[in-house]
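User: Predict the full complex structure for these chains.
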Amino acid sequence: MTKKAKGIISNQLRKKRFEKDEMTQQELAKALGVTRQTIAAIEAGKYSPSLEVAFCLTDIFATPLDELFQWQANESESDKD
Amino acid sequence: MILKNSNFSEQTAWISVVFTVFIAVFYGYGITQLEGSFATHAEQIVGLWMSTIIASIIFVVIAFSGLAVIRKLNGDDEDISLVDERDELIEARATRWAYYNLSTCIIILFVHIFCQGVIPNYPFFTNVPPIDFLIHGVMLSSLLVEFVLRATQLYRYRTAA
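Assistant: Here is the predicted structure of the two-chain assembly.
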């Protein structure tokens, strides 16, 4: 059985930002040391950040990683003998 | 609008795309105005290179001055030296496409020159000496590679990383 890393990563970044005193994308970008466009791309699901950035996000929002990011495996690709 | 919603890396990619098209047109027009070949009129080709370099400098100065004004008007105070992991990933992927393009261009150039030398009645660019074909081919290939690099970057920035 092989596992291929194919699937969809969704995230709760926008929700968490608003919960944290309506933090702006620019403020979050500054805190992470990335550009605002990268935050926008992550929120839109167009870009998956590195583990380093993901763990920094958990620090900033004081929340577990699996609350911030969710993984939905593509069933047709994930389990093949 | 596009410049407003983009970071500095993407903005410079837009400028580079326009720059390569401008220089390709400038250089292509210059080639059509040349008389004779490199062996007999080398000074003309050197003159074309010089004028292309001067045109490039003028274009870059105007483009980046314009970009600075636009950024100021938009109130964009983002650090222009900031290149994050997404920028690096996009550049790496674009560089791969540019590398394929460069390899293809070099192979085509040398295959053409080889064929011109060994095949009687070779039908392509019969009136262009091999050295001229190589010189102009390398110049236009480098512009094409730069165009592919920046266009791929823009595609990635606009769609997904």
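Chain B is about 75% helix and 0% strand.
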